[in-house]
């Protein structure tokens, strides 16, 4: 049987995929998965192509972690997502270009396209800035995830979560696509037409039975 259910290897593969696709640069992002009474998360300061499974860090729900290892500096907001959202089992954070542009401008992504419903709400909010790694930032992240499954983080980046790691990665890619659309629309200087709330409610309902389908 794979150590820790094979999750360390899947986390590393997701990190490498995130950088290859352009969703992230260097070691700026971090990925975690719920595991037993805590989570497994990427380490601090190790390049993704240099990581092996033994580098992935287990962080307990009480905040303790394995001796000799250092988890990502962002572990606190990963932890609070798991503690406040029992339906989410994987968290993906990155500094994707277009998402980060909007985050710097403190702009939520409104209902420019029905795919906004993939995140489970009427928009993708931008939560207030706080220094990385702090409890203050974790509080902002928790507030954002009380409304949907993806957020922008002011002057920081983007975070998406899902029932599985595959679904969290899929959602992160969708958020970046929506961000790119919105940035391009803003550049036209024209009034941007939005879908009405009642239509987004319909699509959110449809997404409960739609989205990424993963093979066992």
TrEMBL record:
Top-rank EC class of the record's enzyme: lyase
Organism placement in taxonomy: Bacteria, Pseudomonadati, Pseudomonadota, Gammaproteobacteria, Oceanospirillales
Biological source species: Endozoicomonas euniceicola
KW Ligase (keyword) present: no
Keyword Lyase included in the entry's annotation: yes
Domain (Class II aldolase/adducin N-terminal) ranges: 9-183
Alphabetized InterPro entries for the sequence: Aldolase_class_II_sugar_metab, Aldolase_II/adducin_N, Aldolase_II/adducin_N_sf
Protein's name in the database: L-fuculose-phosphate aldolase
GO MF annotation list: L-fuculose-phosphate aldolase activity
Gene3D superfamilies recorded: Class II aldolase/adducin N-terminal domain
Keywords: Lyase, Metal-binding
Enzyme Commission designation: 4.1.2.17
């Amino acid at each position: 049987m794979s150590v820790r259910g094979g999750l360390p290897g899947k986390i590393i593969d997701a990190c490498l995929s995130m950088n290859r696709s352009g969703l992230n640069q260097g070691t700026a992002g971090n990925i975690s998965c719920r595991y037993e009474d805590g989570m497994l998360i990427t380490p601090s300061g190790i390049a993704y192509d240099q990581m092996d499974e033994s580098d992935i860090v287990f962080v307990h729900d009480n905040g303790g972690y394995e001796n000799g290892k250092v988890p990502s500096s962002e572990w606190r907001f990963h932890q609070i997502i798991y503690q406040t959202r029992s339906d989410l089992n994987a968290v993906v954070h990155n500094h994707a270009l277009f998402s980060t542009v909007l985050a710097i401008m403190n702009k939520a992504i409104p209902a420019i396209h029905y795919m906004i419903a993939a995140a489970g709400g009427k928009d993708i909010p931008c939560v207030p800035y706080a220094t990385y790694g702090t409890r203050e930032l974790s509080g902002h992240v928790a507030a954002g995830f009380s409304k949907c499954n993806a957020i922008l983080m002011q002057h920081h980046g983007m975070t998406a979560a899902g029932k599985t790691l595959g679904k969290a990665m899929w959602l992160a890619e969708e958020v970046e696509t929506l961000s790119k659309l919105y940035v391009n629309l803003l550049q036209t200087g024209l009034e941007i037409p939005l879908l009405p709330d009642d239509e987004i409610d319909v699509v959110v309902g449809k997404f409960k039975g739609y989205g990424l389908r993963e093979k066992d």
